[in-house]
Structure of Tubulin polyglutamylase complex subunit 2-like isoform X2:
Amino acid sequence: MDEINHKNYLDQITIYIKKKKPGICQVKNDIKPPAERPAVLMWEQKHCLLLPEDLKNFFLTCNGFHLTWCVTMENNTVPVGNMELCSISQLVLLDAAVDDGSHLTPSLWDLDGDKDKNGRKLPSFVTSKIFQLDQCQGYGKVCLVYDEVTPKGDDDVDPDNENDFKFPSDYTTEIWFLDRSLRWHFICPTFQAYYRLMLMHLGLPHWQLAFTDIGLPPTSLQWFNLYAPVRLEIDLMGDVTKSSHTAGKGMASSPLDLNKVFKGKSDRKKPGAAQNMASGTNVSKKRQPISSARSAAVAGKHVTASVSQPNVKSK
């Protein structure tokens, strides 16, 4: 994700939301200036970690942004869309749990699980390093999770041994969603995949819940049916999660086409209508003009009158 494409996507999504969707108003896009490279290096030295290359490029081209949009309903404005990514200074480490909890003093360590239903290892509140990317307006947290590539056992770790040090390259990163019940849900393997998904979902309310077993609430389904029906169909089929999972395994990802992202059900009928207009001359030659029911009735009266008239004269 280079600087040109990144800024181009943000500009295009603002224009499309303003002009292509009915009823949308008050579109505000607060793009922060790029972060200084020393600030990124200080973050990595402070946490003894290396930022993923795609996330590092994001901070060096745009140090966070916040896009919101509203909908006009009965002379009132209702806030609907919200896209937000924190800056490098707001990428803070969540408080780690202790592993000495008991039934009298429980801790987050008691909530750690082995694997999810797909066999993927869940993040640990004790051993994983978890950083908050988006607070999701209070209904959850989108987190950047660091996990060890080859985790060591408890017997192998010696806190007094200076040689027992984990290098930054010994960690892998993934994007997870933490709901309010402190359950983990996998979203995608890379930050770039999450960034693309956020743009595709237009920042609609609770869109991250489409990747969980919780599902979208009824109000969010209504907004999806109105502004992103095609994206809703893909989310319900589960194709987005499969494509985002395989995107991080070395498969080439197709470029983001904003014309298809903002395409609704009504827009899909336009190409067919255009083709019919183009071939209207051929259709008119083949088909006979269809008269209305009223004209057909009037024509029937004239026919019966002309037929009955000779009989009257013969009498």
